[in-house]
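User: Hey, my collaborator sent me this sequence without any context and asked if I could get a structure. I don't really work with proteins. Can you help?
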Amino acid sequence: MLNQETKQKIIHHYDLVSPYYEKLWGKHIHHRYYLTGKESKEEATENLIKLIVNKAKIKKKSKILDIGCGIGGTSLWLAKNLNCNVTGITISPIQVEIAQKISSKSKIKNPPKFFVQDANDLKIKEKFDVLYAVEMISHLEKRKEFFKRCARLLDEDGKFCIADWFKKDRITELEEKEYIKPINERMMVSLWYSKDYITELEKNGLKLKYHEDISQNVKKTWDLCLDIIKRKDFWTLAFKHGKEFVDFLKAFQNMKNGFESGNLRYEILVFEKTSKNKG
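Assistant: No problem. I've predicted the 3D structure and written it out in structure-token form, which is a compact way to encode the shape of the chain:
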């Protein structure tokens, strides 16, 4: 289980590696979604955003909280392409600095606002049309409390969009030890079953509107990442900064193995707060 020490490691990790993330992922620090397998890195990363926007039916000019916004790529995309009013939060001060710099150069009429905030202890009081949480919930220690607070932050008919890593249903103890434990340790996460997210959010009055396992469409992300880190400069940098960075690069193979074995899943979930479930 994640704890305070792990939280500090996560902050340190993202502060350290975020300046180099653009070389690996571009401005969008999340998996790439391939429809043909021939898309460019940029096209594939945007495909994931478009999929979520489409399935959640996110409207133009929506008020959005991008939780775990990274270096701001998705926040900027939503502001530019849908004219949304976006607030991005991340636990990393360095990521906020990078996001603000990128935003200042974007010339978007309605640029996102970026803040440092710990999603384990959300302090935001205002309501939102959309909560957007991609590949960040698995880092959280206080996950049940997070879900409870998110339900309160949603306005009536608001949508909670989640994309995250999960372990497969009915995983054996041996499979978990071989495929999931290395990911948990090296990526500083704690992987749940997707049904656990569904149970917790339904307890808080949200209704599941869409759910899909897209593992087969995103797993190519790790083939490309493994190709990139064949470069010696990544490993030189990793050894310079210590074990956590080295483990992070080693985890790329663990992620590929997890997807190839079927024990690691990547799933999209969209929940809605209906008038009957108004909190």
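In plain terms: The first helix runs from residue 4 to 25. You can pass these tokens on to your collaborator as they are.
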